[in-house]
Design goal:
PRC-brl_dom, 6 strands, PRC_barrel-like_sf, PRC-barrel domain-containing protein, single chain
Amino acid sequence: MSTKDRLSSRIVGLEVRNTADDAIATIEDIAFNENGIDGYILSVGGFLGIAGRYVAVHSSSIDLTYDRANNQWRATMNASAEQLKAAPEFKYPSNT
C-alpha cells in the first residue's frame, strides 16, 4: 500500500474547503454502496468543537486530492457554508 491510499482514517476528520479556500465543513463519515464510496456525511455549522448538524453529499461533490509535498489529503467543494447549512439534514438511522 502507498502512503497516499484512500484509507478512511486519512479522510474522516478532514476539513472541507471551498474554491475560495474557506473552511466550510468537516468529513464525519463515509457512506458506501456495493460499488464503492456513495457519499460523505459532513458536519456543518459547528462552533468551538461542537458539531452543528450533518448533511449528506454525493461523492462526486467533493474533490479529494493528495498533496505529496505535505503528505496529506485535501478536500474541496464548490459550495458555500451557507449552502451547506441550508441543505437537508442527515440523520443516522436508529438501530432500534
